[in-house]
Amino acid sequence: MTTPPVLSATDVSVVIDGTAILDSVSLDIAYGEVLALVGPNGAGKSTMLGVLSGDHKPSAGSVQLEGKPLGSFSHLELARRRSVLTQENQVSFAFTAAEVVEMGRSPWVKTPQLAEDDEAIAAALAAADVAHLVSRQYGSLSGGEKARVSLARVLAQRTGVVFLDEPTAALDLRHQEEVMRCAAGLAASGRAVVVVVHDLSLAAAYSDRVALISHGVLDAVGTPAEVFTAERIERVYGLSVEIVERNGRPVVLPVR
Amino acid sequence: MSRRARGITLSIVLAAVLVAGVLLSSIIGQLSISPSEVLGSLLRAVGIDNSFASSDPIIESTLWVVRFPRIVMALAVGAALAVAGSVMQAIFGNPLAEPGVVGVSSGAALGASFAIVLGGNVAVLSALGSWGTAVFAFAGGLLATLLVYFMSRANGRTEVVTLLLTGIAINAFAGAGLAFLLFIGDTASREQIVFWQLGSLNGSRWQEVAIVVGVTVVGLVIAALLARRYDLLALGERNARHLGVNVEALRIGSIVLVALLTGVAVAFCGIIAFVGLVVPHIIRMAIGPSHRALILASAVGGGVLLVFADLLARTLVAGADLPIGMLTSLIGGPFFFYLLARQRKRSGGFA
């Protein structure tokens, strides 16, 4: 990477109840790139995302945002720098989808950026394809619709760093592609995007770099073509795969 | 109807009902006073001389010594309890959290009873003087709220069942404490403790009213200022934090706020349950869950509810002053049933 990293984790370890969830992981993220975090279930992807976003304090190691320790930022300062789409998005009480998306603007109350509110919300609604849902109650939406409304909320926050934890999990084929294209679009506009995905082909198609985590250890990090080799995926996932190239990107197919 | 239109409608309805309630409470009673006499007396109090005002000192003192303090007390206590309810529901992310249901009120009553029975024997209490009961009610309420908070939360959310079971446990414990205090107290203290448990606005004095109004106004302002954060809390603890809310500080601060509002209400008027459950719920159905409007409307709605409940309490049986806590529970019990039935129809009950 030629640009200096906006976010850098150094030798991060997380131990919960005596079990090492992450073991000495170092990772840099720069503005303008999509970094995909991939790995088998329970490998520590979400924990890594939590450490990078400031949710979990690492047991050892450090995370720097804009060259300063993550812990030195206040809640509000962090909220203006990074947004997070979590896996679970329940909303108490009968808020409408529009109200939920508007909540994404709240870190900018009493700042000049507040003037962007309407435009940011409209753009977020369009990008997540939820403009038609605004007057619906959030609780009455389907799982995929909830996920997209929550994505719109995160987009409306307009932060330099965006974390997406399995944003495609509940989505249909078209919306999976759209969300990943949206992530790539964010990177193209200069943001840093960290996304956890399970679909390796999807990760390969839309990310600039891939970090493969296995049993809490960073197995490999690099371009999709560098990381996704048949040998490595077979070793990490315990499944024989075939790698096909499409438009210069690897496509991972299980051998059936 | 849009939420905005509903909001305006609700404001008008609440204002009308509020004025009607205050007027009715002023004129109805053992001594009938005409509306013009009430108006005249009020005008004279603000320095406008008029011919409506009665020259009868009995009417004047009935209004200014008995009825007006009682009405203002009803408004303040109703507002305090309704705001406490909506704040509690916001921080627990659960529409069933309510000071009476989860045991905050009985915790406060236990504290108050402790002060009543042991008033003369404890150095701290003698030092506090007439403030002892209020301070202990607040302390009891705070203790109970903290207990509920730490007992019933898991992963940033509160399961309904856990919340209600915690309430049962705290109510049971406070009940035992009250029983013990009843047992060791003298006759006068016993009577006073029975009063706490039933709740009444009878004999409200301006001095007490001033304290309750002061605390309620401060609490209401703080709650309204925190409203935006309560909205974000509806997204869940983690998401609220991602949006810049210091969740732990907000929760602890809000708990003190709930204990303060509930404590001050209970300290002077005893346990008046269900106001904090019924009022925010109805307001939410009318204008949606957004907390700033909800908290402000709940304050007015709670006041209105208690003004009417108190009017009923003192007029329903001629010559008798029914406990107002009994009346609100009479409304609150069936309302709770209604909530259960509605929830069961939707999703097979609270889980």
Summary keywords:
heterodimer; A: 256 residues; alpha/beta; Rossmann fold; 2 domains; six-stranded mixed beta sheet; four-stranded antiparallel beta sheet; 12 strands; globular; B: 351 residues; mainly alpha; ABC transporter involved in vitamin B12 uptake, BtuC; two-stranded antiparallel sheet; 1% strand
Q: Mind explaining what this structure looks like?
A:
The complex is a heterodimer of chains A (256) and B (351). Chain A has 256 residues and is of the alpha/beta class. Chain A has nine helices and twelve strands. Chain A folds into two domains: 1-81 and 159-227, Rossmann fold (3-Layer(aba) Sandwich); 91-157, no CATH class. Chain A has helices at 45-53, 75-79, 97-103, 117-127, 143-156, 173-188, 200-206, 224-227, 230-237; strands at 5-16, 19-30, 34-38, 60-65, 68-69, 82-85, 161-165, 192-196, 209-214, 217-222, 241-246, 249-254. In chain A, strand 1 and strand 2 (19-30) form a beta hairpin. In chain A, helix 3 runs parallel beside helix 5 and helix 4 packs antiparallel against helix 5. The radius of gyration of chain A is 18 Å and the shape is globular. In chain B, 77% of the residues lie in helices and 1% in strands. Chain B has a single domain, classed as ABC transporter involved in vitamin B12 uptake, BtuC. Chain B starts with a helix and ends with a helix. Chain B is built from 15 helices and two strands. Chain A binds chain B through residues 53, 55, 74-80, 82-84, 86, 88-96, 99-100, 103-104, 106-107, 109, 153, 157, and chain B through 93-95, 228, 231-236, 238-239, 241-246, 284, 288-290.
